[in-house]
Design brief:
The complex is a heterodimer of chains A (about 425) and B (about 300). Chain A has 10 helices and 21 strands. Chain A has about 425 residues and is α+β, with helices and mostly antiparallel strands. Chain A folds into 3 domains: about 230 residues, Rossmann fold (3-Layer(aba) Sandwich), CATH 3.40.50; about 80 residues, Beta Barrel (Elongation Factor Tu (Ef-tu), domain 3); about 100 residues, Translation factors (Elongation Factor Tu (Ef-tu), domain 3). In chain A, β4, α7 and β5 form a beta-alpha-beta unit. Chain B has 2 domains: about 190 residues, HUPs (Rossmann fold, 3-Layer(aba) Sandwich), CATH 3.40.50.620; about 80 residues, no CATH class. Classes of the chains: A alpha+beta (about 425), B alpha/beta (about 300).
């Protein structure tokens, strides 16, 4: 037992560790699995029996080295075909942070997986092979990360060992990438020269890159300031469930349970309930551990109001001078996720936005975006699996929305096919993210 | 002035409570699958928090293999009394007696509990079942959704999972179909123990180290009791052991440990180098794809 492990345990119990979610995207040979394997291995998250099993399978297959990708390829079809089909979630913790990795396969046919992984990510890790430089796939991954509003992008220029740790090669890639990214809205872009295989600049700073004065990847991820990425300005509280105890001792209790989407709520605040527009004040904010002085995202709380007004699931609590837009005509970017159907004008779907379900009809397709070139095809008549486009929807009842880039919680929705019940699309309200 | 940052444990708790409330709001008849193990206890604890001061608005179901440690049953009954919830017991022994399932030659009732579970889900009309599965447990679980769709045979099809974007969960099902819900998806074993210690949650005392009479079988330590009596030629010894998982009493082994408090277990879990299932569960060693196969059949 080392000191580091004790510290992690203590930090986890005393509540000083926060959570960082990051998404990785990459294809089979850019070293993504090796990088994840190294982060897990060096943070002592890979267990001996898992490693034994991976070593055994590698030997059985006649591989020269232990294939760390086997740790992440969980399904039989994936192992048989040697490809990653689905988003896999991985976990590791250091004394400073707990990390959740959404590991997404990078092939073009898996755009929907990258969208899934990026939807909850604070950081997107994009791998670039130092020998190949910025390729189509790097651009696609960056575009998808910005489309999903991921606030931090870390470009890992990998396989530096194969280019003699050349500063010039690293700088050229940085220049190419920055130029491309200037066409997108990337709030925070960082470049790190690494070798996932050799461990350079992954957990520890490498002596092989004396010209690089930034941190190793893990320290960067540990220190990255993500708290200010959340929207603490605009109070949005989608009512999830109304708590009315059917017991003698709490008969008069009526609380609105939900997760704070954005903003900071306090007892005494004046609030407005939508869609009724009725105003009241917050009497108390309850949790099972007692009332709290304030609630902020992503706290799950129960709000009690001073006046009895009619509120049910799907309604939204906001501030009277700061409300979301109530819209029935929605302008959105969507990523189509269903292989058995495509989006065409005139089709109707169920739509879920925050805690509210409604029905929506596709009025128009403005254009389809080529995820590699960003070219907009305005002649497009349908949007198919793994395609992204801008569309107009007409919804049966108002949704209380903010632009996705300002507030992902109230700017996002899913479309569900009413006959198959499958989730067919992810939607982001508002236009494409542009550099301003 | 606070920083408005939730600790990772409180973030995980908030996410789980959100998931539990979402299921109750959207599904017709949810049930919580309760094994008496630490994960299902943490899940039940958070369900109670999600609806306070009201009671938990759904029953819990125990698939009773008939091979339970008595202290696990005692702990289950304490939880039922404390929370005032309805307990549904689906008995594997009863299903064997009725001929629904047949005892397997190795004595494991892990696989045959699946038909018993599916039958009870159908009989009670449950359309959503909470399970305590975590993605860090096993490779097939790492790709499981929070809302995991099951067809009318209760089967999981890993290639046909619903995409899950943001926290917009889709629980829509047709008659006969159902959703398995995993509120602990993003928790690790270390998180579970840190939370149990932070909240001082009531768990079976098997998890705590104490001197027990054990027999060493191929490196696995089995407690000597009615389920695992000494065989001819074996000798037992007294060692300080605890259980990392609580499965069937005839197949779950203990590990050598001095961790007799919750805090000591957190320390031990942070330092341990072998997975909980690898260490103590004979039933997971069948093949590399054992879990994937069982999940396809309707296991949770």
């Amino acid at each position: 037992m080392t000191t580091t492990e004790n510290t992690t345990a203590e930090a986890l119990t005393d509540g000083s560790v926060d959570l960082l979610r990051f998404a990785t995207a990459g294809s089979v040979d850019d070293g993504k699995s090796t990088l994840i394997g190294r982060l897990l291995f060096d943070s002592k998250t890979i267990f001996e029996d898992q490693l034994d099993s991976v070593e055994q399978v590698s030997q059985d297959r006649g591989n020269d080295y232990t294939d760390l990708a086997l740790l992440t390829d969980g399904l039989r079809a994936e192992r048989e075909q040697g490809i990653t089909i689905d988003v896999a979630y991985r976990y590791f913790a250091t004394p400073k942070r707990k990390f959740i990795i959404a590991d997404t396969p990078g092939h073009i046919q898996y755009t929907r997986n990258m969208v899934t992984g990026a939807s909850t990510a604070d950081v997107a890790l994009i791998l670039v092979d130092a020998r190949k430089g910025v390729i189509e796939q790097s651009r696609r991954h960056t575009f998808l990360a910005t489309l999903l509003g991921v606030p931090h992008i870390v470009v890992c220029v990998n396989k530096m060992d194969l280019v003699d740790y050349s500063e010039e090669i690293f700088e050229n890639i940085r220049k190419d990438f920055t130029e491309f990214a200037s066409r997108l809205r990337v709030p925070d872009l960082t470049f790190i020269p690494i070798s996932a295989l050799e461990g350079d600049n992954v957990v520890n700073r490498s002596e092989n890159t004396p010209w690089y004065d930034g941190p190793a990847l893990l320290s960067h991820l540990e220190r990255l300031h993500v708290a200010s990425d959340r929207n603490l300005m605009d109070v949005r509280f989608p009512v999830q469930y109304v708590i009315r105890p059917q017991s003698h001792d709490a008969r008069d209790y009526r609380g609105y349970a939900g997760t704070v989407a954005s903003g900071v709520m306090k007892p005494g605040d004046k609030v407005v309930a939508l869609p009724t527009g009725l105003e009241t004040t917050i009497e108390a904010i309850d949790t099972a551990d007692g009332p709290v002085d304030e609630a902020y995202p992503p706290m799950a709380v129960t709000v009690r109001l001073a006046d009895e007004i009619d509120i049910s699931r799907g309604d939204m609590i906001a501030r009277p001078n700061n409300t979301p837009a109530a819209l029935q005509n929605i302008d959105a970017q969507i990523c189509w996720m269903d292989s058995d159907s495509s989006l065409v004008p005139g089709k109707k779907y169920a739509i879920k936005h925050t805690t509210r379900w409604a029905r929506a009809m596709v009025k128009d397709i403005n254009y389809r975006v080529d995820v590699n070139t960003l070219h907009r095809d305005e002649e497009a008549t349908e949007i198919k699996l793994n395609e992204i486009g801008r569309i107009q929807l007409r919804v049966t009842q108002p949704l209380f929305v903010d632009p996705y880039q300002q507030n992902p919680q109230t700017g996002s929705f899913i479309l569900v096919d009413e006959s198959t019940n499958k989730t067919v699309a992810a939607g982001m309200i508002g236009g494409l993210p542009h550099a301003s | 002035m606070t920083s408005h940052v939730l600790s990772q444990l409180r973030s995980l708790e908030a996410e789980s409570i959100h998931i539990i409330r979402e299921v109750v709001a959207e599904m017709q008849r949810p049930v919580l699958l309760f094994s008496g193990g630490k994960d299902s206890i943490v899940m039940l604890h958070m369900a109670a928090k999600a609806f306070a001061p009201a009671r938990i608005p759904f029953p819990i179901m125990h698939v009773d293999t008939g091979l339970n440690f008595q202290t696990v049953l005692d702990c289950r009954d304490r939880w039922v009394d404390r929370l005032g919830i309805q307990l549904v017991v689906a008995s594997v022994q009863d299903a064997i007696d009725r001929g629904l399932v047949r005892e397997e030659p190795n004595g494991s009732r892990n696989r045959i509990q699946t038909p018993v579970l599916l039958e009870a889900v159908e009989k009670n009309g449950f359309d959503a079942a909470f399970g305590g599965g975590r993605r860090d447990e096993e490779k097939a679980r790492a790709k499981e959704r929070v809302f995991s769709f099951r067809d009318d045979f209760g089967q999981w099809d890993p290639k046909n999972q619903r995409p899950e974007i943001w926290s917009l969960y889709n629980g829509r099902v047709h008659q006969g179909e159902s959703i398995r819900v995993f509120p602990l998806s993003n928790w690790t074993e270390l998180d579970i123990w840190s939370y149990i210690a932070a909240e001082q949650i009531d768990i079976p005392d098997l998890y705590l180290a104490q001197e027990r009479e054990v027999v060493d079988r191929d490196g696995m330590l089995f407690a000597v009791n009615e389920f695992t009596p000494l065989k001819d030629g074996e000798t037992s010894e007294i060692r300080s052991v605890r259980y990392r998982t609580v499965g069937d009493a005839n197949l779950t082994a203990a590990v050598e440990s001095e961790a007799s408090t919750l805090e000591a277990i957190v320390e031990e879990t942070a330092a341990v180098r072998i997975t909980e299932r690898g260490a103590t569960r004979g039933d997971d060693k069948v093949s590399e794809a054992a879990m994937e196969d069982r999940k396809r059949e309707g296991y949770f």
